[in-house]
Amino acid sequence: MHMGAVADMAVTPDQRDFVGDPLRMMLISLEEDSRRPYVIEAGGVAVGVLTLQSGAARLAGWSDDNSVWLLRGFLISSAHQGRGYGTSAAKAAVEEARKLTARLGGGQSGVVLSVNERNPAAQAAYAKAGFVDSGRYLGGDAGPQRTMYRAFRR
User: Would you put residue 72 in left (φ > 0), alpha (ψ -120 to 50) or beta?
Assistant: First the structure.
């Protein structure tokens, strides 16, 4: 894993309310069996991070924990934003979650996430990746969120 590159990732000042420290997110994900951390690469360079988590979908305002994967800790480093990596990575995360479901037999039907209402760039990237807004969620630390869901393609 590119932990040095992850440690060097930065976000824009207006994103600090929405995302945590990338290295901390990766380290926490490595310690929990329910979490699967990923480094997002483009041309062999680490450009972002994300985590897929099973059994935790209510953290995004979903009605239950186990019917879907939770996409969390997702960010593209500020040096690499605006190039479509977020949309591509969100699509790839859904495909990876589908493969994990098939391999592990978890029965999940798709992927859910929550995104802050004050983060329209992320909302647009998720929508481009096929996520559908499923309503407002008031459980976020940084204010109201939108719950977004994408089903696995059959």
Answer: beta
